[in-house]
Amino acid sequence: SLDFETNSSFTFSVVAEDSGSPMSLSNTATVIITLTDVNDNTPFFLLDTFTGSILEGQTPPIYVTTVEATDEDSGENGKLSYAILSGEVPFAINSQSGDITTTAILDREAGEEYQFTVSVQDNGSLPLMANTTVIVTVLDVN
Fold first, then answer.
1. pLDDT confidence of residue 66
2. Which residues neighbour 80 within 8 Å (Cβ) at sequence distance 6 or greater?
3. Cα–Cα distance between 84 and 101 in angstroms, integer?
């Protein structure tokens, strides 16, 4: 089978020879076949769960953690973008880097831990996606 990720091109020689008499003639040509990638690989996160912690009371945006995924496709099919799927959480994600930051001042007494879902989607014409869990612990400042 042909798979772009395994071998993106094939090169071979073709020899054409006639049955001429008294002398046959021949010629050789090199053929190069280049495959085009299709979006056949689903992106995947490097961890099942990503964790981070932050001290309460800090003015946003404060960096918390980075989620990281990969996709074995190439070109546009391998370009990834991240998004937070959960509803109201005091965090934002950089869609290109996966960096997660705060969007509000966090108070440990109001919530010790936040758990939410992050998705990654490739840029294929029929996009493929995966999800992971992020757990953020709010640390007390006392």
1. 98
2. 43, 69, 70, 71, 120, 121, 122, 123
3. 11
